[in-house]
Amino acid sequence: MNNKIAITRNLSSVRSAVDAGFQRPGLIVISGFSGLGKTTACNWLLGQYPGRCTLAIAKPGWAPRAAMQAIAYQLGHPKPPGLVDRCQIEIERILLDKRGHFLIIDECNELLKKRTRETLDFLKSIYDETKAPMVLFGEPGFERVIRDTDKLRRRTPTYVEFQQCDLNDARTIVETCCEVKINGKLCKIHVRDDLLERLIAETRGMVGEICMGLERIERACAAMKVQEIGLEEWGEQPFSHAVVGRKKAA
After folding, report:
1. Residue 250 — very low, low, confident or very high, per pLDDT cuts 50/70/90?
2. Which of 29, 143, 194, 207 sits CB 3.0–4.6 Å from 231 for a disulfide?
3. 3-state class of 242 per DSSP?
4. Helix, strand, coil content of the chain in percent (nearest 5)
């Protein structure tokens, strides 16, 4: 598979949410289970808005001081202050200087723990001072905390819930990313719907596992020197070791 990013339904939803965020600033909350492509979406946003956004990844134990220093550093501050309030001021100064810039925070489910919950208040304060949009990615449950907290809910006009890949998403991934060398020539491949439907069912629509399965399908196409493959040619072979293990466990 090449390094291109396929525009699935989830990525289209993220793009629409961010574009709307420039018209109606606020917090943009994006939730989804691990394996549905949230990290890919973060990196895709960096490429879509070069120089206009900054990504920070929440770590376990991301209390306010560590969070503010990490965000300040990612924004370009060479030596973030040690005091959390001074660090927050520096973040606000940078964002005010970079009008139109926005923050992306990944793994926000780490902010639900007792030690890290206060970090959400600091993010809210930064937004209040700068009106810089913030895109917050987290696993399911994180969005409920935002909705249940008055001061955060009032600042959050947009929620996006990542969905499992469907057949159209799988087709898009194949059309965008799948290619093999046959007789020394790089060729696009076509995966018929019957094989894609089985792949989706066995991977539960998890985009990461779908891509792993497609890589194996690519290798099969290269070995058979064919540009089209379906369930008949594929047979009963597994798509990945992870799928085999899960089927045995079931």
Report:
1. very low
2. 194
3. helix
4. 55, 15, 30
